[in-house]
Amino acid sequence: MTKLYRIDDYRHEYKNRKAFFDRNELNQLLSLYSRRVASGEWRDYAIDQIAGQATFSVFRHAHDTPLFSIAKQRIRKGWEFRVLSGPAKLSRAHTLTKALQIFERKLRVVT
Q: Which residues of 102-111 are buried (b: 16+ CB within 10 A; e: fewer)?
């Protein structure tokens, strides 16, 4: 006897998966955070999980709005990482490493 499977049932389950940061991504985020705390730029962080999106937000003061938010969201071809500053989208990439390149400091000549 043949058993039938409804593809829509599996697609629905796939779409509603919760987003979270894996160990490597969390290491990258906390490494960046610790460097910026050491330089005195950032002071606090928060990790949120809302509607299929995981967000790592950094703050200058605990009572302020976030300076930056790094969001991980599911798209059709996998995951997408976005770096936001308020409503402005600063960076968007399929890997966290590429999205975080915006925080790399550029060396400049001081005269």
A: eeeeeeeeee
